[in-house]
Amino acid sequence: MSFTSCRDKRTQDKVNNRIENAKESADRALDKVSDKIEAGADSVKEAWIETKEEVKDGAHKAKKEIKEGYNNAKKEVKKALD
Q1: pLDDT over 80 at 72, yes or no
Q2: Torsion over CA of 13, 19, 23 and 29, rounded to 10 degrees?
């Protein structure tokens, strides 16, 4: 036959409560980290989309300028040969 004192039960309850509190704190911390990572990923995605659009616009502008330059050069060569 064995006896467990109330003091042992209270100590065990305190330990269990501390473990549960630590788990909850860790869960909250992980949730915060997860939210920050998600927000960071969203920011990167937005920046990528903006950069992609800027590159696309720049390429179109460069193509237009090259075509205009080519046409102007072509006109100048034609004038010079006439």
Answers
A1: yes
A2: 120
